[in-house]
Design brief:
This protein is α+β, with helices and mostly antiparallel strands. The protein contains 8 helices and 6 strands. The radius of gyration is 32 Å and the shape is globular.
Length: about 260
């Protein structure tokens, strides 16, 4: 009997030092390599949606956007920096849950995610040509060449390019020497660890964290302290023995007088 092909049903993600989430484990190891595999978190997707709103007057296609990502919701928190996510078919636009978004990069050249990058690039170039007075019209090739150069520099320095940064590099692209006042603020682009902890503060933790001191330990210490105090009130502690462990001469003389 042929073995069933693995399905993309869950993944484990880790919060990196760069405050981005990276895939650590995945249910479908046949089609997915977790080395450098990144995933977009809810805060980052909200930022992307704000940027996409600028492209809607240029006929941005939501179906291309929806097809580009696998959606995941939080199953449980494994520890302070790791979450287990499970697949959901909820729409990006309709859900109220905090979803994570894994780009469909199984086919990196012609897949749904590649289609989204191409779609956004074309619309961004159209918007820039309408918004900026350039001596020569900007082309998609200009945008792609500049972004590719940045990614190559990251590769040479041994840095993996996070998918959020890749999407943002298209949505926020502006030719050198120009700027757009219409771009939304990027305050949410680099969230702090404190902000991320607040976002996921209500998630149940599966693994017990190390307990330094529980309540029963405190009760035991209180009982020991009470016993020592009672002993001191009744007559004080017994005299310490001599260093050699033998009775002193004074003790022997007291015993002779009693006899």
């Amino acid at each position: 009997m042929a073995k069933a092909a693995p399905k993309l049903e869950w993944c484990v993600v880790r919060l990196g030092e760069d405050m981005n989430w990276w895939v650590e484990e995945i249910s479908d190891e046949v089609h997915w390599d977790v080395d450098g595999l990144s995933i977009i978190d809810p805060r980052q997707m909200n930022h992307i949606i704000d940027q996409i709103d600028l492209l809607r007057e240029y006929d941005f296609q939501d179906d291309i956007y929806e097809a580009a990502f696998y959606r995941f919701k939080i199953d449980k928190q494994l520890d302070n920096n790791r979450l287990r996510l499970v697949r959901t078919r909820d729409s990006i636009a309709d859900t109220e849950d905090m979803l994570f978004y894994l780009p469909d990069i199984i086919d990196e050249e012609k897949g749904p995610y590649a289609d989204l990058i191409d779609h956004m690039s074309r619309l961004r170039v159209r918007m820039l040509n309408d918004s900026i007075d350039l001596e020569q019209k900007l082309t998609v090739e200009d945008l792609e060449e500049e972004i590719r150069e940045e990614q190559n520099n990251d590769f040479l320095e041994g840095r993996a390019v996070h998918v959020f940064r890749e999407v943002n590099s298209v949505l926020e692209y502006v030719p050198a020497g120009f700027e757009l006042d219409a771009d939304p603020d990027d305050d949410d682009e680099k969230p702090t660890k404190k902000a991320i902890d607040q976002d996921f503060s209500d998630i149940e933790v599966e693994v017990e964290e190390k307990i330094e001191e529980d309540e029963t330990m405190k009760w035991d210490e209180d009982e020991e302290e009470e016993s020592e105090e009672e002993g001191e009130e009744e007559g004080g502690p017994p005299p310490p023995p001599d260093a050699d462990g033998e009775e002193s001469l004074d003790d022997l003389e007291d015993e002779d007088e009693k006899k």
